[in-house]
Task: inverse folding
């Protein structure tokens, strides 16, 4: 029997499967919810100096990891194993950066510089493209931005 109908994983027959799945793995889902609540309590109890990139960046990464964790639970709850694995890989990448920043504060600058490098790469690709679809994006690239990239 197929566990979903024209609603796919968003409703309909999948609800029956979710209920059966939660019944079978109830203790695991209870633990998942408890961990989620603990993470939110931890986040709520933090005071972060908005001027400190050493406080802001790991806090934002931790919040992102909590969000990704919740996404994993939601998709696994619906039996979406492959998307769960994909989201888990993204979670691991965020965890790597989070841990690396805590282990070596110099890594924080490398991590933040990645965004500038990506921005510059994207602007150069748009600027050098001849695609008519990107014409609107090329207009805001002024001389100051080109100078910054160089």
Result:
């Amino acid at each position: 029997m197929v566990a979903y109908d024209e609603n796919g994983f968003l409703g309909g027959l999948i609800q029956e499967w979710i209920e059966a799945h939660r019944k079978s793995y109830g203790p695991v889902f209870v633990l998942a919810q408890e961990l989620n609540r603990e993470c939110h309590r931890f986040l709520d109890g933090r005071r972060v100096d908005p001027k400190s990139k050493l406080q802001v960046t790991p806090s934002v990464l931790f919040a992102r990891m909590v969000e990704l964790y919740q996404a994993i639970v939601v998709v696994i709850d619906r039996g979406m194993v492959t998307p769960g694995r994909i989201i888990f890989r993204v979670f691991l990448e965020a965890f790597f950066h989070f841990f690396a920043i805590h282990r070596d504060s110099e890594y924080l600058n490398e991590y933040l510089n990645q965004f500038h490098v990506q921005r510059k790469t994207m602007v150069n690709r748009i600027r050098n493209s001849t695609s008519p679809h990107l014409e609107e994006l090329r207009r805001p690239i002024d001389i100051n931005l080109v100078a910054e990239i160089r």
